[in-house]
Structure formats: C-alpha cells, structure tokens
Design goal:
The complex is a heterodimer of chains A (337) and B (335). Chain A is built from ten helices and 13 strands. By secondary structure, chain A is an alpha/beta fold. Chain A has one domain: P-loop containing nucleotide triphosphate hydrolases (Rossmann fold). In chain A, strands 6-7-8-3-9-10-12-11-13 form a nine-stranded mixed β-sheet, sandwiched between helices. Chain A has a four-stranded antiparallel β-sheet with strand order 2-1-4-5. In chain A, β9 and β10 form a beta hairpin. Residues 330-337 of chain A have low confidence and may be disordered. Chain B is globular, with a radius of gyration of 24 Å. Chain B has helices at 2-28, 34-39, 45-54, 61-73, 87-122, 127-140, 144-158, 181-187, 191-227, 231-238, 243-273, 275-280, 286-295, 299-327, 330-333. Chain B is mostly helical and 335 residues long. Chain B folds into two domains: 2-73, no CATH class; 92-327, MetI-like (MetI-like fold), CATH 1.10.3720.10. In chain B, 76% of the residues lie in helices and 0% in strands. The chains are: A alpha/beta (337), B mainly alpha (335). The interface between A and B is medium-sized, with 32 and 21 residues. Bound molecules: adenosine-5'-triphosphate, iron/sulfur cluster (SF4) and magnesium ion.
Amino acid sequence: MDSQSILQINDLKVSFYSGERYIPAVDGITFELKDGEILGIVGESGSGKSVTSLAAMGLIPSPPGKVEEGCILFEGKDLTTLREKEWRKVRGNQISMIFQEPMTSLNPLFTIGNQLAEAIALHTKQSKAEGVKRCTELLRLVGIPRAEGILQEYPHQLSGGMRQRVMIAMAMACNPRVLIADEPTTALDVTIQAQILSLMKDLNRKTHTSIILITHDLGIVAEICDRVIVMYAGQIVEQGDVRTILKTPKHPYTEGLLRSVPDLRGKRERLYSIPGNVPAPGSIPKGCRFAPRCDSAFGKCHEAAPPIYKTGSDGHGVRCFLHKVGEESGEHVGLPS
Amino acid sequence: MLTYTARRLLSLIPVLFGMTLVVFAIIHAIPGDPAQVILGQRATKEAIETLTRELGLDRPWYIQYFDYIKSLFTGDLGTSLRTRGPINQEIWPYLAATLELTGAAMFIAVLIGVNAGIISAWYSNSWFDYTAMILALIGVSMPIFWLGLMEQWAFSIQLGWLPTTGREDVRDPITAITNLYLVDTLIQGRPDQFITALKHLILPSVALATIPMAIIARMTRSTMLEVMKADYIRTARAKGLGMFWVVYKHSLKNAIIPVLTVIGLQTGLLLGGAILTETIFGWPGIGRYLYDAIGYRDYPVIQSGILIIAAIFVFINLIVDLLYALVDPRIKYNQ
Ligand SMILES: Nc1ncnc2c1ncn2[C@@H]1O[C@H](COP(=O)(O)OP(=O)(O)OP(=O)(O)O)[C@@H](O)[C@H]1O
Ligand code: SF4
Ligand SMILES: [Mg+2]
C-alpha cells in the first residue's frame, strides 16, 4: 500500500521572536503525507499543530515567526524557498486550508458568492457565468441544497455548520491536492461535527484530495484518519497507522491521550487527564520533553533527549527510551528509504 | 436599504424640531428687551417699537414660534437687520464658499489620512509608519492659525506660488452660478479661472485639513491593525490572495466603519470651525458672515446661520449612518 508521498516535511523548525531571542515552537518535525490519505495530527494545546500547518501554507506570521530550518516538499519541490508571489500560486490552488472558527473565518461584509468566486477567480481563468456555475457546483459538493440562494447571503445569515461547509467549498474551489483542516469541527456541536467529518471523508474519496486533519480528539482520528502523528511540545512523539496506534500505543503520552478519551476502547472509565501542562516554548526541559509528566520516566529520561525508534515495519515510530529495542532511526521515520 | 433610509429620515424629524426650538430661543435668551439690545442704548422709542413689531416680539411666544416654523417650511429665513435683504438669498454665497472649502479640506484629509493609515498598518513599525505617525502627532497638536500664517509666508510671500487670500482674482471676477467656484468655472468653460479658483483653495483647505487628516490617519491605522489580525484575513490569504487586495478589499471595508464616524464628526467640526481659517485667508464663508452678523447684533442672521450649520451637521450624521448600513449588511438586521 505504499503510495506516493505528496507533501513531505523534513526537519522543520519554526521559531517565534520573543523579546531578545527566537524560541522554537516547532522543533525538527519530519513526516510525509501520502497521496489520497487522511493524516491526523493530535496533541494538546500549544504542541505546535497549527504552526506546522501554517508553515505548509507559507502563512507563519512574520514578524515574529520564521521557518528556521528544514524543508517542505510539495510534489518534490521545496516550498520554503518560494517568494511571496510564488506562494500565492500554491495557496488555495494546490494546498488549501480551513480553520477552527467558522464564525469568524468568513469576511462578514462580503456575500458568500463574492468570497467563493474570489477563490475561484484567483487561480482559474473563467467567465463570470462559469464562475457562478462553479460556485453552485461547489456548494452542492459540500451538501448545501439551496445553493443559488446562499450565494447572495452574508455569513451572519448562516449557521456555524453551514459556514464551515462554505469554508470547505472555498478550500475545494480549485481542486487542491492537499487540504489542511485545523480543528474544523471544534467549534461545532456534535451532530454537525459528524456531518462535517463525513463530508470530508466523502471529499477525500471522491476527489482524491489528501487531507491533514488537526484535532484534539482521538475519537475523530479513529473515525476518519488513515495514519496519525502525535505531537508534543513542538516534536513528533509517535506516528504510525491509526489502527496500530490506537490499539497498541507505545508512547506514554499517547497512552495518556487515549485514556482521556471516553469510550474509545469499550470500557467506560473515569475520565483521565494527563497531569501537568505542555511546557511553553522556551521552557523546554532537558532530556525527554515529556519526562516531567511521565509516569514511566527513569534516570536517563532526564538527561538525554530520546530519538525516534522504529518499532515495526509499517513506519510506526516512537520517541521514547522504553522502546529502544527497535532500530534507531533518528528523525527520519516514515520517509521512504 | 430603502426602509432603513426612510426610518432614519423619520427619526430626524424630532431632532430638527428640537433644533428650531433652540435656535428660536436664542433671541429670547437676550436679557432685557431684545429690540433695545439690538438697537443699542441711544435708540429712539419709535425705532424700538418698530423693530419689536418687525421681529414679532409683541405677540405671545408660541405664536411667534409657529410663524417661525411656518416660514421655515416655505424656505423663508427672515430679513437681515443690517442689509434689509432676505437671508435665504444672502446667505447662500457664503455657505457655498464654506462648503467648497470644507469639501476640499475633507477630500484631502480623507484621501491622504486613510491611505497613510492603511500603509502605516500594512508596514507597521517601518520608517513610513514612524514618520507618518510622528507627522500625525504634530498635525493634531498644530495651531491652525499658525499653520495658516506659515503657509502664507512660505508659499505666497517667499515662493509666490499661491495667492494669500480670497477666492478669486479681483481683476478677473468669476461669474457666480452655483457659487461653488470650481463648478461655476467649469460650467462656463473657463479652465483658466478654474485654475485660479483652485490655487486660491489650496492653502486654506490644506490648513483646514491638517487636524482631521491626522486624526483619520491614526484612527485608520489602529482599526486596520486590529482587523488584519482577524481570522477572515487569514482565510483571504489562505486562498492565495495578494496583500494589496487583502488590505484594500478585505481589511479596509471592515476597518473603515469606525473611521466613517470620525470623518462625519470632523466634517461637522470643520463646517462650524472654519471661521479661523476663513479669517486668516480672507475666505468669504459662513463663518465670516456670522462673525459680521454678531458684530451688528443681526439676530435673524445669527439664528439662520446656526440653524443651517446644525442642520448640515445632522445631515452629515445621517449620511454616515446610511454609509454604515451600506458597508455592513448586519446593521439593518440588528435593529
Ligand atoms: N503568532 C505567534 N507568536 C508567537 N508565538 C506563537 C505564535 N503562534 C504560535 N506561537 C507559539 O507556538 C506554540 C504552538 O502553537 P500552536 O498554535 O501551533 O499550537 P496548537 O498545537 O495548534 O494548539 P491548539 O490546539 O491550541 O490550537 C504556542 O505555544 C506559541 O507559544
Ligand atoms: S523517554 Fe522516558 S520520560 Fe520520555 S516518554 Fe519515554 S519513559 Fe517517559
Ligand atoms: Mg491550533
């Protein structure tokens, strides 16, 4: 099942300037997105999920942020060397993104039609009539029935779920190869959440768009993702096949996350939460970044930083000394060798 | 939009009535006998009686007010005590001069102020931003009469580029049609006179524009900075939109709403406060007209002047409100 990789991120380091120095928020991340797959990225707040995805869009706010190291290969081409003008041809065209807050992600002063048409017109040469046709087509694609009416409406006239559908339609306007969804359902209630997720799964199947889905919720990952990356304090701590990771998590952090999801593994236990907080960038502990919160931590954990160990043939990798048995693969787990 | 406009117009009626009441009360606020005060200590008894009758002061006040309103409805503003002419005809050339001056000043203030604010926000903390904001700070605290005198000294006396005072070349007077000289000269096909009128307009309108320009620039910068952090701006960029359109389409439309309020307020202030500039630049505007009327204690003229300026003020507010609704579709629904 080894399909082609469409987006490949190597050793990415993104830092933000604060006061007198650059502090890394994402610190040496390596992963790939395969053609047509849905890749989940999970992790607590502040672990660097959004920063990673914004980097892939060339949208790291600068100043204060900057991509310090690493490369982002899209179809083999490094995006980090692009100039703003070239980035614009990638954004919304080849890589699109949708955001957490459908309430505030659409401009309140322009009609849905205007904002959709803008997305289309930016990357395609179409007549106005063709543009309108494409708009209604897109709205149908994302399951909005009365498409013609919606085009004349303003964002405040739509519900949160509708707005997120519009956002998805906008992101799909130019048939992107990659869709990055940064917590697309967090702000929505449960039923709407399920609808949006199944819509994304649908789009993935129908249009073969690869999706990166960022979420806090392992339940969502279990439902629609093929592979998953677990992030902690700006690093990847575990990655691999969704089924493998959910069934046999190796990293103590992943285990902790799984235990804090009710019902996922059948039995209902008291809702667990990992004690402590993600260390803020700039106050990263020496040794394993998770050590202060880890139940299994031992001497070495406080001294050296663990690399990622490969624990299986399917690209499953874990950044934890407990799994040293496997082949040490440095930062490059998951890359085709 | 139509119903909204109609509703806003209706809501003006009580305001306008209130204004007439206040203006009407001005003459009654004079301590003692108004006619005596107007005519002075050495007036004869007959003269005072004639004026009392002429002003209708011998009748009960509610009749007087009713008559006042009635004549206002027919567009009659009364008679000037000084010139004995009908005020509604006399006042227009002065009002037009002021409108032309204020209009030009606001044009400059909005054009430069808004753009300076936008570019400052776009390139915040750049040298442009710093320079513009320091200039704006100087601008808001600049005494206008001093600025006016400096302009005259530099551009008229030293460089000789622009005339010091007046609206036109006295040796080649402009034939008034609308009394807006930029319009009149164009209607009459006199580009030479148009240039002359424009040259006369530059110095006073720049002086008058300085403070509003500075205020508008600072306001625009701060609202733009706020708006550019919004999620929908990130969405616009994620679509692949270039910064120019992100700024001038998506950000500006959102940022301009609070700026509109400031523009409206400043326009009103300029109309009422142009008198200083008009005096320095010998501009025959409403400020000058009222100033002279006050000197002669020409109460009907004073009343009419105040009424007209107040009415324009209200009218500008109405326009600002309507512009709000035009820019922001949520406004109509939220009321
Ligand atoms: N604009 C910024 N300026 C300074 N620091 C930033 C900025 N954006 C992100 N960071 C830093 O990067 C860290 C990671 O942020 P990021 O938004 O990627 O977290 P996240 O995993 O997406 O969290 P959440 O689940 O809350 O969205 C933050 O803790 C913050 O310190
Ligand atoms: S390396 Fe040590 S501290 Fe880090 S997760 Fe593994 S056991 Fe815990
Ligand atoms: Mg985030």
